[in-house]
Structure formats: structure tokens, C-alpha cells
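Priority: medium. Attachment 1 of 2:
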């Protein structure tokens, strides 16, 4: 089994071009599954794994308190692995063919309302060097829904200044194009013209957003900025960089955007990943109905 895992990881890395972080996550998930099969079921051959064994494994890791997003990733890792085994004719039937992750395991992403987002975006201001930079970063994050890792890795060539589009290198080295919007565009333009040269000093770098040392931001550094401004805005809920991505998708759908368009902008390869945001919209509609309808 370990030999098959090694071959599969090589396939993901070389042929599929899967990002290193994703590869490591899948590796942990699949090794845990193989350990379960070997120790609990005493199987030495993957052909012996049945749908019942898969279900038992998923129930086991759920009961151990695995988070909803980790559950989804574990199932995705297993699906990919068994599709590979089927393609290589190592197995004849896929035991995951009819297994779906139960809705009870799904957790809606954390979002903030449009009003709460406006309050957060207003916190940095535009009076100092860090304030102008931070406003540009937050506005761009909300305007495009990009991941924090994508934000801190943007370069001067990532933004098409003529047409106002952001060229993003996402997971698996997949490139996508996302509109920026006037507010975020103007904020980033001001940062580039007035602030970035001061942060660079005599250094030479094409990284778009620079910290006070003239270097690329760390995820931790930007995380602290977001958390700080959320508290400053008086929000009681926890707000992280990824909350901006979730809110971006939710607000677009609330405004009438179609699911396929949001999927493309988020860079989701499967539309089912994007569909979770429709649940948020439904929850929001329910809240409004209960609050304002006389019979609720």
C-alpha cells in the first residue's frame, strides 16, 4: 500500500502539478486511511476495501472531532486516490462511487455582513504609510476574493492597470483572472504611487505589498492586521483573512451573481465547492424573513 501511495504522490506532483501544501495535506489524509485499513481491518490489499469500510473510516474520523473542511479534504483525497487506482487498473471497482459527505458534516463558512465589512475597511484610514498600504490590501482582498497566500505573493505584474484585472496564480499553479473594481483599484494605485517606493528604499523586488522592512508579508503578519482591525471595528465574531474570501462570495450571490461566475473568480475546480455559499444566502434570507415578516 505504501508503494502505491508513493506512486500516486509522484503522479500528483509531476503529471497534475498539485501544489506542495495540497500534496502534504493529501499525504497525511491518505496515510491515516491506510493505517486504519491495515490496523483495524487487517487488510493488506486495497481490493479488499468496500464502501462499508470507507463509510466506517469517515465516521471514525468525524467522531474524533475532525473539522468539516478537513472532512471534505479527506474525502477528496480518497476520491482522487481511488480514481487513480481505477485508471491504473489496480482495482476494478471504486468503493467511493456512491459515497457522499453527509450534510451534517458540513459547516457554513464564516462571513460578515456588508455593513460589518464596511466597518472593517474603514479602520486603517489613509493618513499614514501603513494605513494606505493596509487599506489597499484589505480592499483588494474583499474586491477579488483571493486567498491570503495569493495576496502576499502578488507582484507588480499581477495587476493589469489598463483594464483593471488581477492575474492570480492559484492552487496547483492554475492562473485565473479576477476583476478588481474601482475602489480597490484606486487604493492600490495610490499605494503603488505614494507608499511602495518609501517601503522599498534601495531594495529591488517586484513583490506588490511590502512590510515595513521592504520585504514580502508573511501570512502571520497579515493575519494580525486583519484580526486587529476587526476588533477595532467592534466586531464580536472572529474575523480572519479567509473571512474576506467567504464574504466576497456570499455578497456576490446575495446581489444576484450566478454560481458559475463566482466559481471562476474563486478558482474552484468543482462547482460543488462554490455551492456551499448558496446555503449562506438561504440562511440570510431566512433571518431577514424572521426579522421583518409579521407572521414569523
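Attachment 2 of 2:
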Amino acid at each position: 500500500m505504501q508503494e502505491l501511495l508513493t506512486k500516486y504522490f509522484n503522479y500528483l506532483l509531476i503529471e497534475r502539478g498539485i501544489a506542495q501544501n495540497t500534496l502534504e495535506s493529501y499525504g497525511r489524509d491518505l496515510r491515516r486511511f491506510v493505517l486504519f485499513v491495515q490496523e483495524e481491518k487487517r487488510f493488506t490489499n486495497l481490493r479488499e476495501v468496500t464502501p462499508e469500510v470507507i463509510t466506517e473510516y469517515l465516521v471514525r474520523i468525524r467522531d474524533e472531532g475532525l473539522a468539516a473542511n478537513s472532512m471534505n479534504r479527506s474525502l477528496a483525497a480518497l476520491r482522487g486516490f481511488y480514481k487513480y487506482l481505477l485508471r491504473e487498473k489496480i482495482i476494478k471497482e471504486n468503493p467511493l462511487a456512491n459515497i457522499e459527505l453527509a450534510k451534517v458534516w458540513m459547516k457554513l463558512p464564516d462571513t460578515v455582513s456588508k455593513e460589518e465589512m464596511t466597518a472593517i475597511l474603514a479602520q486603517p484610514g489613509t493618513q499614514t504609510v501603513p494605513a494606505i498600504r493596509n487599506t489597499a490590501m484589505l480592499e483588494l482582498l474583499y474586491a477579488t476574493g483571493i486567498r491570503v497566500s495569493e495576496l502576499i505573493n502578488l507582484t507588480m505584474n499581477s495587476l493589469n492597470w489598463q483594464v483593471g484585472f488581477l492575474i492570480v496564480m492559484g492552487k496547483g499553479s492554475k492562473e485565473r483572472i479576477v476583476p478588481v473594481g474601482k475602489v480597490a483599484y484606486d487604493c492600490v494605485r495610490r499605494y503603488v504611487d505614494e507608499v511602495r517606493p518609501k517601503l522599498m528604499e534601495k531594495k529591488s523586488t517586484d513583490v506588490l505589498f511590502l512590510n515595513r522592512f521592504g520585504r514580502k508579508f508573511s501570512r502571520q503578519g497579515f493575519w494580525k492586521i486583519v484580526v486587529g482591525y476587526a476588533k477595532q471595528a467592534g466586531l464580536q465574531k472572529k474575523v480572519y483573512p479567509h473571512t474576506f474570501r467567504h464574504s466576497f462570495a456570499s455578497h456576490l450571490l446575495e446581489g444576484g451573481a450566478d454560481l458559475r461566475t463566482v466559481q471562476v473568480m474563486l478558482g474552484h475546480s468543482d462547482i460543488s465547492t462554490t455551492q456551499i455559499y448558496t446555503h449562506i444566502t438561504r440562511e440570510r434570507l431566512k433571518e431577514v424573513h424572521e426579522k421583518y415578516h409579521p407572521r414569523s
